[in-house]
Every structure is written in structure tokens, then in C-alpha cells.
Amino acid sequence: MFNTVALVGATGAVGRIMRQLLEERPLPAKTFRFLASKRSAGGTITFRGQDHQVEELTKDCFAGTDLVIATTPDEIARDYLPSAVEAGATVIDESGYWRMKEGVALVIPEVNPQDAINAKGIIASPNCSTTQMVVALKPLHDAAKVKRVVVSTYQAVSGIGLSGTKELEEGTHMHLHGQPYNYTAFKHPIAFNCIPQIGGEKEAGYTSEEMKMVYETRKILGDESILVCPTCVRIPVANCHSETIAVETERPISPEEARGLFESFPGIKVVDDIGSSMYPMPLNSTGSDLVYVGRIRKDLSHPNGLSFWCVSDNLRKGAATNAIQIAELLAKHRFGK
Ligand code: 2RA
């Protein structure tokens, strides 16, 4: 078993879910530590029936820790995680900073587990909007090679953390009462609105969130030839990202074949009966660790095209669950459990 597992960013939105998952799922470890910024350090966390003090994250806090699971802003991951590697720890990082770096594995356990097993040092977990799409693409790619993807996202406010949820709730309340509200987490009012920008301007008119979907998809699937055209949109939904995905494959995949491929792939659940108005939605997917797929149909505009709808809990499979699954994968490989 692991000797000491440190959870960095233990008090944030994703850190809370990681703690919950580590309570529910038996990651074998003798000791757990909980680390956070100076602001949150000193508080008490009750975990597996015991009280733990939240320790301050510093560069020399990792001695004796063999696994670090981190969920922090990019600059914190950049500045602190190399010290954990130098101290001998394997690091699973949820931030965006290390994902595309040369030599860093970018892993979804259902898709490319071997990359985690072969990794040295930092193993990155992908961006939430990429993760659910790539889980859904993988069985199609294995069966008929994905050539091109056109994806539009409908992303929940929880994607930016607790401040996003607060601004949706407070902004909605103020809007309904005809009062102004000073949004700071979003560039525009999110209540009763859609914002077609997630992240900063990156290249060729695309945002950083959109380019993550391009580059991370290629890296995880190990195929630089895959073309991705993304549009990422923030919508006034509390939790769970939704995506429309139109995919062109080397040979046609019928909706029936796609349904079978999705159904037999681990981590995917098909909910698809338009006649009974059954499809995945944020409200019926929240709290789950699965990627939900529905509205599977032929793309009428292309002979090799397939179109579907995909929903997943961005804080769970899109973040916390994927990181914990990587830890479980390492535990199984190293200790057989
Ligand atoms: C968002 N994808 O939803 C981001 C979080 N990593 O804002």
C-alpha cells in the first residue's frame, strides 16, 4: 500500500469531492495528509473517522510522501509540484499546467492506462471538457478511427469552482428581483445568459479551453492527425458539462453499431430513447462518475458522420474521479489492489 498520500488543494470544490471519493473507495494507504494554501491551512478535516489538521503547502512539505494528488490553480502546480517529484513522490495533477509538457503522461484510466503505469514523476489529468469527450470517442476511434470532431460544449458554472456556483445563485436571485449584481468570476452576467468564451484568447480566434480540447485529445488518443473544431460555452447550469459531438470516422459507423460500442465501453452509460424523451441531462447526471451518451444518430451531412450528445459531472469524472481512478490504477499495478 502507499505509505503517505497527500491531497493538495484539499479544501476547494474538487478537493472536497476527492476527499468524499477517498472515503467511499478503498485506496490503500497508511496515512493521508491534507494540504492547502496558507489561507486555508490550520483548519480541521474529518476523514475516515479521524480529525486531520490542514497543513500549509510549502516546497519542503513533501518528505516521506509517496503519492500526491493535487488540485490547484496552474501557477501553484507549476511552482510546488516539482518539489514533490524531487522528494520522491508520484504526482497526479488536476491543473492545466503540466498536461501538454513533454514527458508528462496525460491519462484517462479507461482510455490510456498504460501511460500512467509507464510515467515518471507527474501524471496529469485532462481538462473536464476533454475527458468526457475522449471517453466517448475512444470506442469509436478503436473501431473506425476518428478523423474529425466538431464539438460544442454547454459548461456548468461549477467548472470555475465555488465562486461560479455562488455567482449563478446570487445573480439569478438579484435578476429575479430586478436588482443589479456585480459579477466578478464571469466576464458577463451568467444568470439567464450563455457566454461563448471559456478561458482567454489563445490562437486563431479560439479560447484556451477550446485549444485544450484540440491538443489534449490528440495526446490522450496518441494520434496527432485527429482534427477537432471546438466551441466552448458557459451556460447557467450549476453542475455537469454537456456536449454535442459530431464525429467523422474512416468508415461509417451506424447508430446501432455506435450504441453497442458505447454500451460495452467501461465508464459509459447510454441513455437514448427520444420517443420517451430519455436522454442524459445535467440534472440526471450530477453526482455520477460515468460519462452519459444519448441522441445517437447519423450525421445527415456526411456519409461517415455520427452525431451524439454527451453529459458528465465535471467535478467528478471531469476532475476528482479521474484523478482518484489514476491513483487506484497505480495502486493496482504496484500493490495488486
Ligand atoms: C471550466 N473546464 O469548466 C474548466 C474547468 N477546468 O471552466
CATH class of the largest domain: Alpha Beta
CATH topology of the largest domain: Dihydrodipicolinate Reductase, domain 2
Give the overall silhouette: globular
Per CATH, the superfamily of the largest domain is Dihydrodipicolinate Reductase, domain 2
Q: Compute the number of helices.
A: 9
- pLDDT < 50 stretches: none
Mean pLDDT: 97
- Biggest sheet layout: 7 strands, parallel
Task: Determine the N-to-C terminus distance.
Answer: 8 Å
Tally of structural domains: 2
Kindly state the percentage of residues in helix. 25-40%
Number of strands: 17
Major β-sheet strand ordering: 5-2-1-6-7-9-8
The protein's oligomeric status is: single chain
Query: What ligands does this structure carry?
Result: 3-amino-D-alanine
